[in-house]
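Methods — Computational structure assignment.
A single polypeptide chain was analysed. Its primary sequence is given first, followed by the predicted tertiary structure written as structure tokens.
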Amino acid sequence: MAKSTVTLASVALRQENNLHSSSIGALAGARVRIECQDRETLQLKYNVEGVTDSTGTYQIKVEDDHQDQLCYATLVSSPVANCRTADRGRSRAEVILTRNNGAISDLHFANSLGYLREEPLSGCAELLKQLLESDE
């Protein structure tokens, strides 16, 4: 039985408005799920969850080889009350979970995922004003 470890660079807390987006820190305690679906039927075949550490990083042990499946790292929940909206385009990332593609490592990486804050940080209004002025 093959075992793989999926590691994500980070799950980030982000501040975003229509013109500007920036990472404002790692998100500890976020729940992340690895889901694998059948390529043809899209039926869920495997899932396992993990939690991010103080650096916003997680490692999840994955059982078996998932060569014939579509696998994703997916955001499940945020522990921060005003930061529970997944960043569109960063709510899940594809992960290849097989050794039958030439990879010799059991360590696999997913792209970073993130949540958006509901309310702007102090200073965002001034930054937005400066950005708009520089476009004129």
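Note: The chain is about 10% helix and 45% strand.
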